[in-house]
Amino acid sequence: MKTLLTMTAAALLAGAPAALAQSTAQTTPLAADSKVDTQTFIKTVPGANEFEIQSSKLAEQKSASADVKAFAKQMITDHTKAGEDFKAALAQGQTTASTKPAGPALQPKEQGQLDELKAASGKDFDTKYIMMQVDAHKQAVALFSTYAKSGDDPAMKEFAKKTLPVLKMHEKHVKELGAAHQG
After folding, report:
1. Would you tell me the crossing angle of helices 38-62 and 122-150 to the nearest 10 degrees?
2. 10 to each of 14, 16, 43, 102, 148, how far by Cα in Å?
3. First and final CA of the chain: distance in angstroms?
4. Nearest-angstrom CA–CA distance, 2 and 130
5. Is 24 a member of any domain?
6. Which of the two residues, 158 and 11, has the higher pLDDT score?
7. Is-contact 42 159, C-beta < 8 A?
8. Rg of the Cα atoms in the chain
9. pTM score
10. β-bridge partners, 35
11. Closest C-alpha to 73, from 48, 50, 55
12. CATH of the domain at 131
């Protein structure tokens, strides 16, 4: 039983980066050995980070809950810093100019979620925002932890390692926020 549980957990973890790649509409498939290539990492991070900032700015404006607004303010601060750290790591990294992203463009899924949040209001807004944040941080933690272990660009790998604890803290905080707003 214990072995089955361990194998199931390993299988779920191995599939997380692949699920992330599919959900972010990346054309670069991830290897079955749970490795995130640098190109996938640097194309995924800016849009995901931008989604965090834009959705949290909406939460600051639209949420009626003080705790949601406080979380959103923290997201804006932390993800703005992460964006700056990402650019610095990209400049120091081994990635060639042709593979560097043009800017923090939102993926179609992220743009759709942002549009959904713009249309929501009141308790419905808070519920959607919290749910999207839980999902986004689960995916980000999977992506960053995988790249921190298996990435091949030292500067990007260091960025992933440095950012991971903050993402894990966000994930924990948003789950607590979700529990507080169930009802």
Report:
1. 160
2. 6, 10, 26, 35, 17
3. 35
4. 33
5. no
6. 158
7. no
8. 17
9. 0.77
10. 31
11. 55
12. 1.20.1260.10
The number of folded domains in the chain is 1
Token pair belonging to 168: 């894990």
> How far apart are the C-alpha atoms of 145 and 164, rounded to whole Å?
7
Residue type, 125: F
CB-side neighbour CA atoms (13 Å) of 73 = 7
Q: Could you give the CA distance from residue 87 to residue 46 in angstroms, rounded to a whole number?
A: 9
**Is 54 a member of any domain?**
yes
pLDDT of residue 59: 97
- Average pLDDT on 166-180 reads 96
Does 163 fall in a domain? yes
Domain that holds residue 168: 38-93+111-183
CA–CA separation, 78 vs 53, rounded Å? 9
Q: Per-residue confidence at 3, pLDDT binned at 50, 70, 90?
A: very low
Which amino acid is it at 94?
Answer: Q
pLDDT value at residue 162: 97
In the numeric block, the tokens 């689960």 are attached to 138
The verdict on residue 30 lying in a domain is no
In the chain, the percentage of residues whose pLDDT exceeds 90 is 65
Closest CA to 137 of 104, 111, 105, 175: 175
- In the prediction, which pLDDT does 119 show? 96
Please name which of 158, 162, 164, 159 lies closest in space to residue 145, comparing C-alpha atoms.
164
pLDDT digits 0-9 by tens, 130-171: 999 999 999 999 999 999 999 999 999 999 999 999 999 999
